[in-house]
Amino acid sequence: xxxxxxxxxxxxxxxxxxxxxxxxxxxxxxxxxxxxxxxxxxxxxxxxxxxxxxxxxxxxxxxxxxxxxxxxxxxxxxxxxxxxxxxxxxxxxxxxxxxxxxxxxxxxxxxxxxxxxxxxxxxxxxxxxxxxxxxxxxxxxxxxxxxxxxxxxxxxxxxxxxxxxxxxxxxxxxxxxxxxxxxxxxxxxxxxxxxxxxxxxxxxxxxxxxxxxxxxxxxxxxxxxxxxxxxxxxxxxxxxxxxxxxxxxxxxxxxxxxxxxxxxxxxxxxxxxxxxxxxxxxxxxxxxxxxxxxxxxxxxxxxxxxxxxxxxxxxxxxxxxxxxxxxxxxxxxxxxxxxxxxxxxxxxxxxxxxxxxxxxxxxxxxxxxxxxxxxxxxxxxxxxxxxx
Length: 388
Ligand SMILES: Nc1nc2c(ncn2[C@@H]2O[C@H](COP(=O)(O)OP(=O)(O)O)[C@@H](O)[C@H]2O)c(=O)[nH]1
Ligand SMILES: [Mg+2]
Prior knowledge:
binds magnesium ion, single chain, Spore Coat Polysaccharide Biosynthesis Protein SpsA, Chain A, binds guanosine-5'-diphosphate
């Protein structure tokens, strides 16, 4: 008698909510109720792991009371306070070590600024095959309420900088901690990096996790509205250390993937620099003869001067060479080379005894600082930045 094989019931995906909580007594109860409400609406099999990061208030007790009241809540406590990075790492380790690879881990702040109502659309993306779904402030339909303008600017600038230097396809919001992960990618992350998977102790940890998963996980974003007006306590983010931490993280994760510099491209790049510098000198020479004419007259006059036309031609050749180089070179190499052209012209002018206006020296200073920053920050194939 052939054996009757019953159809394999797809194993329901368990949802692991992970909440890093530091002095969140004012919001933790309402948040846990909200999570229970959303999870039961979705008929999810879920668990909530609250990592109490050495709170001085009754955050832990209130969460434990919810567990006693029957909610699937577990409370881990750090003693003393360790910081967001350590706390989120502990929560992710706890959840991923007990989850099945296809379970989903949802992380969010415990301050009610990130509404659990968005989690179903994020988990749906995990079910569609993505590894990471980020609740993003920078997608159509997204937004922020009640966030101080300076903070809005900083978060946006941070994400743009990261996107410039080390973009992840599908990601615009690199610092938001409201995410859904397929548990398996978190497990693999810890297998590969150990505790270094999240080595940042502060707020840069969110950017670090994304960068650690770059190239190994597929990312997608869902729009959400950050409700900072719902926050029931002040923010303790330390802005300057966090910016420094961002740069440190980029340097750390970028260094691991530095590629050898192609000599040919270097040579072409240098030719481009020289060509554009000489072109500058030609244009400058040509401009000298024109004196104080109107823009139109200058242009007309310039375009009839062979020396200026040669200069312009050389410039376009240099730019073409540049584009060729930039498309194959890492920012950390291409930018310094590109910039050195300008610096060369100004220095040559000074050496030639010309009065170089202070503004131009400021230009040189900014370029040099840019070169140092890019060289320190590490690598990003310009092609990817340009292609995005
Ligand atoms: N500020 C702060 N938050 C922590 C710490 N440990 C865990 N957290 C939690 O990390 C999340 C993000 O912090 P939060 O103060 O909300 O930052 P913000 O909303 O971005 O200003 C919240 O859920 C905090 O409770 C910590 O040491 N300091
Ligand atoms: Mg918050």
